[in-house]
Amino acid sequence: MTTGRQTRFPMTRNALAELRHKPRRVIAVIVAIMISVGYLTASVTILAGETATFEHSTIARVSETDVVVTVRTDDPAAQADLVARVTDVAGVASADLSFLSRGWVTGASDWVQQQSVPANPKLRWTDLAEGRWPGTPDEIVLGNVTARQLNLRVGDRVTINDSNTINGSSSSATLTVTGLTQEGDTLLSGLALSSFVAPSFYTVADAIHTSGQTEILVIGDGTVSQERLAERVTAVAGGNRVETSSGMVQRIISQRTQGVSIFLLLLLVFGAVALLVGSIMIVNTFLILVAQRRRQIGLLRAVGAQRDHIRRGLLVEATAIGVTGSLLGVGLGVALSAVVAVVLGGQFAVPAGQVIAVAVVGVAIAVLSVLVPARRAAMIAPLDALRTVAGDAIGRRTSLVRRAAPLALVALGLAAIGLGFTGTAFALLYSVGGSFVCAVGLLAAIGLYLPALLRGLGSTLRRTGPTARLATDNTLRNPGRAAATGAALMLAVGLVVSLQVGAASMNATVDSNLDARFPVDVTVSMFEGPLPAGVVSDISAVAGISDATGVRSARVTFEGGGKPKPVRALSPDVEAMAIVSAPRPPITAGVILADPYLLADAGIRDGSSVTVTGRSGSVTLPVEGDHLAPTDGLIVAPRVLSALDGDAPVSTVWAKARPGADITELRSRLRTVVEPLTGAEIGGGLTGKAIYHTALDRLLALTTMLLAVAVLIALVGVGNTLGLSVFERTRESALLRALGLQRRQLRWMLAIEAALLSLAGAAVGIAAGTFFGWVGTYAVSRELSLENIRFAMSVSQTLGVTVVAVVAGILASVLPGRRAARATPVEALAET
């Protein structure tokens, strides 16, 4: 064949024909790419939709505006004058005052965000779920979730206090609930919000708006751009801040969604993991394909194909596979995000640029994954067309450098982790970077320790018969293939276990810190006077409460060098201290405990002496900051309270919630009990704990679901490896059948191989995941200044991951086993 004909060798046509005639060989690769790309596509599209929903709920009041003026005066006359000036600006269609504030609900520790009802219906950004909009100053609309938690319905009355006068007696309003609005929920709820305040709506005439933020919402007539309209409004705004609505949106979102960028980074990291697991499987698959097509490639070389032609053919195959898998993955991801948007009632958004980038990455991964197999295929000589297929890399020795490099990476990673644990600057960076380097080293070194682990796991099975001995030997015959499969499983299982250990440890650590920050789950207290008889038993009987006891308290004043401050002094006895989340000894008579924020507000240093005066006398004692004390009170020993007020009544109830109690339902039941008590207030740290746990549980559930993709890809890789090895070992299987191995024994042999590979990969993944999960917990806890860092691990979840990996690996061997057992010995030998 001439040089010109060699140059025009039709490798592209041959590669595409190979895919058309033998598609089963690459189906698993296409599925892996489809799942990986689908995962990433779903991640970016779901996040885009959720971000849009979150943004809309966060800044919905200005979503229909063009320009927003933040008014800096509380004078109604000045506000009205400014509105008139803005309305007269050329290009302005309407200008409406909007009031925004926060209020404290009497009888509960709940806050609501108060929003005036816009006069322009176009600016009413939420829908009513029930009832009507408020029409008079004594009416209000609440969110439906908030109303359920407060045990309120349309027609009920609620008292809201000015947010600046929690401990005073001025500025409060008792309002009638006229309607309920929809309160949406998103995946980002609890992860990015800087505060947890429920919405409510009232008329502009309501007095409580005076403590909040005032804005003028400007809608243009469409004749000029937002930027130009903002310039015109600025000219008459008189020093008040003027922003385009889009600019205000970006400012608010950047202030309130710091967590979203971390969440996006987390999703992309998990997506990169899924692609990495997929690429390991793709490399392994193409290596096996090259080994099984060795004679075919040798024949192509014999008829004129050059090394470049062989490489080009495999690259064409990889590109076609990557394009097919990426297109299917994009479709899968977009469909999944649409389902999520419908289920959550959020917005559906497809960021075209990001989706295209994801698809390109999928194709690139497929092409890059074939470079090593293509290089190996190009080295096949024409004489290999006359040889039988041999297992690739059998007996190949590993050089000393290749052995030492992974171990050096592990040592370097451990050193960085140790440096991060010392609390030095950039400790989190050292810990995370060291964990990554250490993980890469463990993956690279898997060929050194996996055979020993397989040998150890198979040592017991070998005694059960020849089938188990053959299966164990087969896992050791090709270390490269076993290492690739084991690495994929190790990475996938290790990440899941790392997440589980990290989540369990963070939950335990957060619980410990929350118990210190919110030591009492539920409090019911009277601001003045005693609680009626029987309240303690009524609260004890509430479903979800495990224990309750009364606490004596008195009104006192305390002074630490400044102006005397009126507060309450509570005196918990031994029984009350038993209800505290974290066990504590009884309060001593030589100290006074005060909330740290109360001390800071009063300008009193921790440890300094304060004088507390009650109806019966006064005491001077050192004060210590302690979250056991309520925000408006002190904690003193019973003897000290008797010196301050000998007749101090039981005016507070401390209660402990049952584990797993529904917080919303519990608070609703408590309000039913407390509602008849004039002046009673529900408090405690249960809601604060629930907020943190909701965020952690949501993050855990979502990330576990996403990491399951990596496990799925790894298990697909196990099945693909077994399936291709059946083709590679056709002659071997035929000889075994000819020597008397039964079909069921052949199927059982492959099942044992899959189980050994899955169990070995899962064992290494569990060990590594446990270690890295603890490292991550420690690093993040130190970064967040959390104390009492705890290690926790769910044994049941870890065993569940192991069982799933092994069972799925065995199931993955079913089809390859049936295919191997279906052929008769004569047919198999003839094919080889």
Task: Note the main attributes of this structure.
disordered N terminus; 15% strand; globular; single chain; 6-stranded mixed beta barrel; 832 residues; alpha+beta; 6-stranded mixed β-barrel; 28 helices
Poorly predicted tracts of residues: 1-7, 164-170, 189-197, 389-397
Q: What is the percent of helical residues?
A: 55-70%
**Biggest sheet: strands, sense, closure?**
6 strands, mixed, barrel
Structural classification: alpha+beta
Number of domains: 4
Strand content: 15-25%
Helices and strands in order:
Blueprint: H1 3-7, H2 11-21, H3 24-58, E1 67-71, H4 76-87, E2 92-105, E3 111-116, E4 128-131, E5 139-143, H5 144-149, E6 157-162, E7 172-181, E8 198-202, E9 213-220, H6 226-237, E10 241-244, H7 245-256, H8 258-292, H9 294-302, H10 307-344, H11 352-369, H12 371-378, H13 400-421, H14 427-444, H15 446-462, H16 466-477, H17 479-517, E11 522-526, H18 535-540, E12 545-559, E13 565-571, H19 574-577, E14 592-594, H20 596-602, E15 609-613, E16 618-625, E17 633-635, H21 638-644, E18 650-657, H22 663-674, E19 680-683, H23 686-728, H24 730-738, H25 743-783, H26 795-812, H27 814-822, H28 825-831
Keywords: Cell membrane, Membrane, Transmembrane, Transmembrane helix
Family: Belongs to the ABC-4 integral membrane protein family.
GO molecular function, one term: transmembrane transporter activity
